[in-house]
Amino acid sequence: MDELVTMTYSEAVREALAIAMERDERVFIMGEDVGTYGGAFGVTGDLIHRLGEDRVRDTTISELGIVGLGVGAAMTGMRPIVEIQFSDFTAQAMDQIANQAAKIHFMLGGAVNVPLVIRAPGGSGTGAAAQHSQSLEAWFAHIPGLKVVMPATADDAKGLLLSAIDDPNPVIVIEHKLLYKTSGEVRPGDTRVPIGVAEVRRTGGDLTIVATGVEVSRSLEAAEILAAEGIEATVVDPRTLKPLDTETIIAEVIKTGRVLLVQEAVKTLGFMSEVAAVLSETEAFVHLRAPIKRLAGLDIPIPYAPQLERAAVPQVDDIVAAARTLVQEW
Amino acid sequence: MTTPIVQDRDRARESLRTMWRIRRFEEAVEDLYGRGLMHGTMHLSIGQEAVPTAACQALNRDDYITSTHRGHGHCIAKGADLERMMAELLAKETGYCRGRGGSMHIADTETGNLGANGIVAGGVPIAAGAALSAKLRGTGQVALAFHGDGAMGEGAWHEGVVLAAMWQLPVVFLCENNLYGMSMSSERAFNLPQLSDRAKGYGIPGVTVDGNDLQAVYDVTAEAVERARNGGGPTFIEAKTYRWRGHSKSDKNLYRTREEIDEWRLKDPIVRFELETVEAGTLSEADLEAVRDEVRTELRGAVQRANAAPDARPDDLLASVYAEVGA
Q1: Could you tell me where the DSSP H helices lie in chain B?
Q2: Are residues A35 and A154 in the same domain?
């Protein structure tokens, strides 16, 4: 077994892009400032110098057009990867995502595939306020035909992206801005993380925390604080929101009988509402000894001021408090 | 200079055959719908047959097209099978989309047809993407986006054309200006003497042509396709034509006059081309009759066979949403 390499989440994404492009000439990237600039978050970095401007394509500021060209290229034998600079800007591109990319395979009777990858950084914590900080994963998971992944670690960022590029369907990869600079151990080479498989990040017998995106590391940090108090938490990271690995989530909830669902996105009709519904209509329900608890972003646009922004989404302390209450009261 | 179509017996006959196939297909759809034998909605292109017929002659079989909600003519002109088209509209398992798409979503990958589209201008950036793909793969293919005048109010049109112009992609944007985007007249909407005036603003060549003049549409499309294939980038074409029928089944024609419709019926592109071929001495009245008979028989057979086919089945709907990984 090759040794693990420590790298940042953003370097891991870049490594996946480079591996995919070196292995498969159908793969190319396009997006705003992905070329010489190296991407708004520095993810594409020096790829233009390594792979050339034909395959690392700077576009105009035209999200709808970029995704549309991606759809057309994907339908005709290419494997395009589109970077949407902030996931909020997918609102500009939504027709091509929701009405075109997602539906073409089904609507055309299976005659055509759309192997398109859309990478979109989401989440709050950068002081960029309401139009640059949303967590919109539920939008995409609500549309049949799209797959949605949310890597929470560097190795997943690489492995899920490599799987997404190989997938014959449109895959939305929601990366998290706060994770780009975090480091993790990454398996070297062309190593995949399968789409649709959750990961149990930690095990403990008192409660099961299911968390996505940046809330995974916050939940793990919370779990360490809780452990010091004698509360042991299991932390499950679904990694893929659609198709969802319900089996793992149900099994881990049955083991503890208590579940805390943590997401950064606003609470109403969020992804964790779906997880809660899955738990309440399956055998997990009869094993629950406490009501299902959701901990989510407030139902507000993300505010600018740092203290307000922090207050808008679950932080480590919030997770600790919610978990403690759940275990102590039930 | 190649021989004009009107003087070339084979091409003249083939052009007429295609135009009649479109006309008769649309009439059959209208009839089936009127008799309650067809479900959903449809957008008929009667009166516009010359544009797709001429434009698709300027394309190779493996060149791409994207089409619109009013797309039956584009499909037929690019070479789609009438029976499978009719089967789709009749909600049959044997239809192009197995009954999942209907009138607005017929695609035919065998003939480079990337699909009709229920979203106005939806196909414009997709065509540009197919052109980008052709360019990256170095295949020499060209993409042509059929769209209506209404599409020119959409952001997707703008963004698709901007990117195609920036990268000089091998794509042709062909606007069938049938004078109305549903009820909005293009004259009122766009404040332009001709829509091709807009091309200059995008840094690409633009031309306006009589869309009911088969030869004229062919000539400008052939020139645009040649430019695209030779690395000269995109072209915008406005082909002025007219839809005789309403926008869709619900249209009461409140926004235009009976006189206007009658005036355009006199400019029937099929009758016009038939007269031209007879005047040129290329085809005889008997030849014209033979084409009409042939198409009538073909359509009748297509409708009968499509009707007899099994209905679309719901049993694997859930399994049809995603393409199989590793398949």
Answers
A1: 9-34, 50-57, 72-78, 82-89, 123-137, 155-166, 186-190, 214-229, 258-265, 269-279, 285-308
A2: yes
